[in-house]
Amino acid sequence: MSSPHLGHRPTYLSRDKPTRIQRKGLLYEKKVARALVEWATPDDLILWGQWIYWDRAVCQPDLLLIPPKGPVVVVEVKLTCKRNVEKKLREVYGPAVDRIFAGR
Fold first, then answer.
1. Is residue 62 a contact partner of residue 50, using CB atoms and an 8 Å limit?
2. Which end of the chain is more exposed for a tag (fewer CB within 10 A), N or C?
3. Can you give the pTM of this predicted structure?
4. pLDDT in tens, 52-93
5. Which of 63, 60, 66 is nearest to 9 (CA)?
6. Residues in CB range of 78: below 8 A, 6 or more apart
């Protein structure tokens, strides 16, 4: 099993025009991102839409808040409550982010 790493958007993913609902969600995500930037300290790093590769899998958490000290925070933005979001955070994003930033 390889180590997870950060990367760019996979070339095999299409760039279809977002639906009206998807655009609404992206606008809300942008609002949350702006609020996070205002809340964070100048030393914090915020990654928005960062792709993570791990073996053959790829995932994209909405936002990563990376303070100079302390844990990395994964932020997943949803307009409505969705099933399995917590499971995705705990079983996919959490372990990948933990492994990527373990040595910092």
1. no
2. N
3. 0.86
4. 998 888 999 999 999 999 999 999 999 888 888 889 899 989
5. 60
6. 25, 85
